[in-house]
Design a protein that fits this description.
Shape: globular
Strand content: 5-15%
Oligomer: single chain
Low-confidence stretches: none
Number of helices: 11
Mean pLDDT: 92
Helix content: 40-55%
Distance between the termini: 47 Å
Order of helices and strands: EEHHHHHHHEEEHEHEHEEH
Amino acid sequence: VRTIYVENGTATISIKDSIKTASITGMPIADKYEHYLRHIKPSEDQFAIIKNEYDALTNDQRKDLTYTKPIFAKQDELAQVRKKLISEYIVENPNSLFSTHGLRGIYHLLTPQEFDRLFNTLSIENQNSSVGVMLQDFLKASKIAGIGQMAPDFTQNDVNGKPVKLSDFRGQYVLLDFWASWCAPCRAENPNVVKAYNQYKPKGFTVLGVSLDSPNGKNAWLKAIEDDKLTWTNVSDLKGWKNEASNLYMVRAVPQNYLIDPTGKIIAINLKGYKLGDKLEEIFGNKAK
């Protein structure tokens, strides 16, 4: 797979064995894209190696953290390398189209302060581009509900129609988990959350599930809670993507979660797979039963 950027003009494409290795000349935007790719190449080469390692696993091995966790850990390390390289590129090339695309790819790795600094490094033209406008929304979300921010409070009804406030859980570590019964990745992630909840509940950890199910989706929501054994507090206003809590946090995809400390501060975002267990072990130690 190869992405090719074009603009008005004439380009010459020389193909030796495949389009992937073809050279493109006479198109300034293609030259700029190649410059961007060369800058981030060290991380991309390593990502390709890790992908090959994962692809070599059997289906059963891909379900076993013994095999996958080392690969995912290397991915996380490389994500930080990519973050550094793209951040450098943005600072050096504020007028480049690829600075906005690069920032779009790493914004979730940035603190609100880092995101704000890099976004304001971009040229005004890039800030006002279609991708730039999208980044403005993400930046606003990071300032409202980013790591280090106080988690915005809200109230929604639980499965019995009882109002529940996020702030009711002060004094505990809370995983605020946005999900939906119709969301396959959410349902696939639920066993990891159940395991963490059962292990660390005695130590002061809990979960508040917020469902983005639709007005006619209450039965599906309740069935998913029962089927997936989600024994923590679950709430929803059953407004789908217009869920007031998800809009408050500017959630654009599910599953998405926020780990909130006992004071109400967000300390981590999107702890999925093994990451939730690792973070809770870091907080509580490994003595939870």
